[in-house]
Request: fold
Amino acid sequence: MKRVAEIAIPNEGMTLNAFGSALWCSPDQAKETARYLHRKRLVFVSEQLGQVRVFPATMRRGRGRPSRSSVGIRPVLDPRLARLITESAPTFFAMKLLRQERGEGDWREQPERAVEIEDAISVEAEKIMALCRRSMDGRKGSESNWLRDALWLFQPDIMPMVAQRHPSLARDGVLAPVAPNQAKRLPANTSDTNRVLSYVANAGRQGITVSDIVNKMRGNRATVDGIARKLESVGRVIIVECRTASRGRMGVRLFDPVHGEPNVLPDGRLVLAE
Reply:
């Protein structure tokens, strides 16, 4: 009792460890002593959300006692990081299965299957990139690189496959925010030829079908076919009859020559993997 009277307990209270150190006793003895002194009304002990603090006896209930909102337990994982790991786990598992399948068999005898697996890995890697962009929405790139570093700790064997397709997710990459994609509306007086060129350029490596161009222009098929043939003759577009799936109907697609010749398998399937 004499030693307790010599302890100067601040009004904001002190932790149980600090109280035990002041008493020169172990934490277990400090907890028992604090509860005993609380019953004797020599100190006031507050326990909220697993945290115990010792206050002076004058701090009765409701006077200086910390509220539940002010006494919190710091989470082990940042909620954003926990959400990213949870949402990306199925995608990483799918990439592991694809990598395992890629490592089996003689791919010189199955080139089409090898391309399909690489294409599937690229799709899964794009999902990881989309999750990272969504998690870093509204934050600076320098503040969001910790997401990339955490993924490298979480999946060190799979992240090199992702970084190969998205260099910004490499260890030394810069995960910068992506500006919202706002397509510019073409002026009303734009010619049909320039409209077709604009649609083909915006389509990127996957190209665009003639049917989609007809729908965008609200024109007729014959007019678009004539424009496409004219542009092909001067090397402005590349016309290929292909399909984007392993099955289905073939369609005429227009590609921008800046991306090179489109990779089309003998069965007519367009391959978008790099």
Observations:
- The beta strands are 14-15, 43-48, 51-56, 208-209, 238-242, 251-255, 263-264, 270-271.
